[in-house]
């Protein structure tokens, strides 16, 4: 099929790296891997940081202009077979795809759309109504987590739903995992206020009580909360922590291969692409049993998921893997098998093909 792809939150070619951008790119790769022709329908970033009516009105005008541009393009060159929108939510609705799909009788599909009733206030209620209409119109809404699926089911009972597990391109990882330092902890996360800063805070608190163990840590990430994050770790020995800053995504595997355990609390994680990459490199994970993290880490098999907010339990899980290298080695092997065999690009492409094959295309 010829597929028009759109990611209103962050287009695949956006200059700022993030898990969202990475998954958009992976979806394009998976669709192409399945034999489809994928074209980026629009690079318009329809993202509202705050519920500001003026910003919303301005973006609506831009979306209308993009819809008009695509209408002319499709009238001239022919319409696509399907419209595919990635990651719709209250701050990033799709104001282009639903209108065009309806006008041109093209099936409309979403991936990782979400709906939260607690956001139904003020302008967010209006943007969520747009998301809900898109979900209702969609021939298929592809969910990455059971949490998102349940949210859509509760809000829009008649929505057409399908499941696709979060995945990565495992070709970036070597055929055999490198033998990293088993006591080297690794974290890969942006430094921004909110959930990311809260996860860094918890991580710093957890490392203090296990200072008697011979761990070191590599931290990949940067952002506006850099000073706040580093201040949280000020009480720890400076020579134990390597601050690598922002690096190119292609360089992340080498950092992971040099480590032994991946540590990240995971507040607010939809699922966390970094968890998938860490396990592909053969690192067991220590995270919280929170948000969408259980969708990508198997507790007791590929890592440990601790109770939300329990710093002592989080520290204890890290200590256990540091002290029990045999157990860490077993988990490392299972983590790598899990990702390579169950969460690869090839597996995702096959699942996507299966889901899209059920949609009637004119």
From TrEMBL:
CDD domains according to UniProt: GT4_PimA-like
Pfam families, alphabetized: Glyco_trans_1_4
SUPFAM superfamilies: UDP-Glycosyltransferase/glycogen phosphorylase
Gene3D superfamilies associated with the record: Glycogen Phosphorylase B (3.40.50.2000)
InterPro entries: Glycosyltransferase_grp1
GO molecular function per UniProt: glycosyltransferase activity
Name of the protein described by the UniProt record: Glycosyl transferase group 1
Organism: Mesorhizobium metallidurans STM 2683
